[in-house]
Amino acid sequence: MTNGPAADGPAAYGLALEDAALDGNAIGGLLIEIFGTEMTTATGTCGTCGTVSQVAELAVYLRGLDTVVRCRGCDSALMVFVPVRGITCVDLQGLISLTTS
User: Fold this and answer.
1) Which of 30, 39, 84, 96: disulfide with 45, CB 3.0–4.6 Å?
2) Is residue 10 packed enough to be buried (19+ CB in 10 Å), middle (13-18) or exposed (0-12)?
3) How far apart are alpha carbons 55 and 71 in whole angstroms?
4) Whole-model pTM?
């Protein structure tokens, strides 16, 4: 997986970023399930452009079974959630940090 704008991002489907994206609140329940606490108010730092945002402000794409969370500054993939045999696999490789207050 690359951290830069992906060939499979919203533009690949002819969608503008703002047309296809939900905000981070859309995955609030998933984040509680995974991290065991409220994470939409957590602050994440993009590993590509350095933009600092609350999770609630990030762009969320629900594509089939997987969920991709992207930076609104540069469209890099920050978080990817994929269910596999009843377990949600989590990739946070695009984040430099993810902190709760």
Assistant:
1) 96
2) buried
3) 10
4) 0.80
Joined together, the tokens standing for residue 83 give 């269910």
Between CA 78 and CA 8 the distance in angstroms is 14
pLDDT digits (tens, 9 = 90+) for 5-15: 445 555 555 55
The residue extents of the domains of the chain are 17-99
User: Roughly how many angstroms between the first and final C-alpha of the chain, as a whole number?
Assistant: 29
**HEC secondary structure over 2-55:** CCCCCCCCHHHHCCCHHHHCEEHHHHHHHHHHHHCCCCCCCEEEECCCCCEEEH
